[in-house]
Amino acid sequence: MKHEETYRVYYEDVDLAGIVYYANYLRFIERARSDMLRDHGINQSELRNHHGIVFVVRRVSADYLSPLKFDDLATVNTEITHLTPVRIEMNQILLVRQKRLFEAKITLACTDLNGNLIKMPNEIFKRLKPEPNQNG
User: Can you give the residue range of the structural domain that contains 80?
Assistant: First the structure.
């Protein structure tokens, strides 16, 4: 499954030099992951409140390739690369005008509210599975 979202960089995102503070790159890619889930009919608040299930970040591997700056229009491409009933692995790439500025590999775990691994509901799993005509 592939997804694309675009975000503007505001003053709140940058340091004194006008460059995005390093931790804020993770905010942009988190927004893109949440928007991807929402756009595929997965309501994370409903999962938490009605099913006692949350997706938590288990691992992040990030490469900062070039600075993201104030007022840039950043596009985040998200692709699920591996899916199991308890884990989602994905690649996320942040670009400005087709230039890669940041790349991350993310592993999400599906847990109950106590942090124990739990299988995601089958309906959610099916929504996240790549379509037959997609590679991966």
Answer: 2-128
Does some domain include residue 60? Answer: yes
Q: Checking phi first, is residue 52 left (phi over 0); if not, alpha (psi -120 to 50) or beta?
A: left
Q: How far apart are CA 54 and CA 118, in angstroms?
A: 9
Q: Of the residues 13, 15, 63, 72, which is catalytic?
A: 15
Total of domains in the chain: 1
Q: Please report the pLDDT score of residue 135 as a whole number.
A: 53
Closest by Cα among 101, 99, 72, 95 to 9: 72
Active site residue 13: no
Give the number of residues written for the chain.
136
Answer with the residue of higher pLDDT: 129 or 65: 65
Instruction: Give me the chain's average pLDDT, please.
Output: 95
Query: Has residue 76 been placed in a domain?
Result: yes
CATH, residue 49: 3.10.129.10
CA distances from residue 114 to 43, 48, 121 in whole angstroms, order as listed: 20, 11, 17
The predicted pLDDT at position 129 comes to: 87
pLDDT value of residue 134: 54
